[in-house]
Amino acid sequence: MSLTSTPVVAPATLVDSALTRGDVDPDPGAQAILRTAFRLLKPDAALALAPGERRGFDEYRAQIATSFGMIMASFLLVATAVFWPTDAYIFADYPDVIDAFRKWRTGIGVLSALALVQFRYVPVCRRHAALTLSLFLCAGGAVCGHVLGSVGSGGAPFYPASYMLPLATVPILINPLRRTLACVAVMLSFSVPFCAQFPEFLEGSYFAPAMLVFHVFTAGASLIVGHALFVLIRANYAQRLLVEAQARQLARAREQSERLLLNILPPTVAAQLKEGAETIADAHEEVSVMFIDIVGFTRLSRSSPPGAVVEMLNQVFSVFDTLVERHGVEKIKTIGDAYMVASGIPKADPRHAARIADLALDIRARVASLRDPLGEPVAVRIGAHTGPVVAGVIGRKKFIYDLWGDTVNTASRMESQGLPGEIQITAELAAELASTHCCERRGVIMVKGKGEMETFLLRGRR
Predict the structure, then answer these.
(1) Residue 306 in contact with residue 373, Cβ under 8 Å?
(2) If you average pLDDT over residues 77-89, what whole number do you get?
């Protein structure tokens, strides 16, 4: 004999199969009622949370329960204090009713104040807010049952309505199984004291079958409404998770955009563009500009594979980028194998000349350890000058931060007409570096577009 396992079928699926076979009346209304009933009885599988989300949902649910409990307790406490003085006037001819109201308001007021204190100052009550609120509701039901039972036949008409509020509020806060248990507990917490005070309720016309049916329907309606509210809370939590995930994704995208923008533009210039500036042009009186060029790059690019040439450029320029950031100067752009940097922009810097000189010396020392695709040491020509420039951003697309002026042209000429492996600077820059660096006079050379100029070679730091 072999044993075979029977697959578990969801209740809603069983209903659909029965309807298909014709075992159930195919009336559309009946179908809807049956499907709704089975869906309400089945677990919340469609709203199942991932293991990592369960704890967050429980905390979210506890927050809702805490807020609801504090609101309800505050309302009852205020209502008790406001309406208490009116009992003597409204029920002046019914001393028994006044005494019952006095007991009821005292008990409800004490429970409301105690609930407020518990929810506000006791963390364990906030973590288990649903259980705490259920206990307070049971205590409130007991107070109501005891007071109405003491009134006797006068309290019997209020029996069905007295615990409708607890039955309607408990389902909002706890899962389906605990919700059912809580509803039953609240009903018993009221009924037992009520019947103990007024045993005649179990006899005669008071204990009518119609009243029991009414109670059952009231509890059932509360459970259904509570289930719907529970589903709404879970759906709201899922929506909250989605919004938080979208917010994190948006923040990451914005951070990435900011990072890309700052890789292209200085922070102050990027801030101006984000604020809506269309054209940015600032004059700077004291700026040091430097150009760096790889010696023999044209010959190298002809005799080496393109991929190897690009890889070498990336390696060399990555070294330059690291040193530029270390020395606190601004990379402007690359033009082919030429690399342009400036110091003293976009913010003025009294050490602009010293910074550019230190960077030039470090670059020359660092590239000596690099090799080109042919295995030869990489050599650079470096030229620099100091003076006034205009810096800014122009254009609408693919804009860059650039410099203009005679200082830029002169620095470019210092590089293009310099010596391999040397740092050629102008007399103006050498004068700025006289107290911090050693400069050797090269002599007067003919500079294209400038005529004769006296130039110096930067040797090192003093």
Answers:
(1) no
(2) 84
Label each residue of the chain as H, E or C: CCCCCCCCCCHHHHHHHHHHHCCCCCCHHHHHHHHHHHHHHCCCHHHCCCHHHHHHHHHHHHHHHHHHHHHHHHHHHHHHHHHHHHHHHHCCCCHHHHHHHHHHHHHHHHHHHHHHHHHHHCHHHHHCHHHHHHHHHHHHHHHHHHHHHHHHHHCHHHHHHHCHHHHHHHHHCCCHHHHHHHHHHHHHHHHHHHHHHCHHHHCCCCCCHHHHHHHHHHHHHHHHHHHHHHHHHHHHHHHHHHHHHHHHHHHHHHHHHHHHHHHHCCHHHHHHHHCCCCCEEEEEEEEEEEEEEECCHHHHHHHCCHHHHHHHHHHHHHHHHHHHHHHCCEEEEEECCEEEEEECCCCCCCCHHHHHHHHHHHHHHHHCCCECCCCCECCEEEEEEEEEEEEEECCCCCCCEEEECHHHHHHHHHHHCCCCCCEEEEHHHHHHCCCCEEEEEEEEEEECCCEEEEEEEEEEEC
Residue 423 has pLDDT above 90, yes or no: yes
453 pairs with which residues across the strands?
445
Q: What is the pLDDT of residues 347-361, one digit of tens each?
A: 889 999 999 999 999
Q: Among 264, 164, 148, which Cα is nearest to 218's?
A: 164
Distance between CA atoms of residues 141 and 308, nearest Å: 84
Residues 158-178 have a mean pLDDT of 64
Q: What angle do CA 385, 390, 391 make, to 5 degrees?
A: 100
- Whether the pLDDT of residue 332 is over 50: the answer is yes
**155 vs 310, residue with greater confidence:** 310
| pTM over cut 0.85 | no
Dist CA 96 CA 328 (whole Å): 88
The span from the CA of 389 to the CA of 383, in Å, is 16
**For residues 411 and 216, which has the higher predicted lDDT (pLDDT)?**
411
Q: Determine the Cα–Cα distance for residues 357 and 423; give it in Å rounded to an integer.
A: 9
Contact between residue 273 and residue 392 where contact means Cβ atoms under 8 Å apart: no
* Predicted pLDDT at 113: 92
The token pair at 116 is 């407020």
> Token pair for residue 441?
């006079």
Percent of the chain whose pLDDT exceeds 90: 25
**Tokens 């103006």 found at:** 428
What is the rounded CA–CA span in Å between residue 348 and residue 389?
A: 12
207 vs 187, higher pLDDT: 187
Q: Is the pLDDT of residue 4 over 50?
A: no
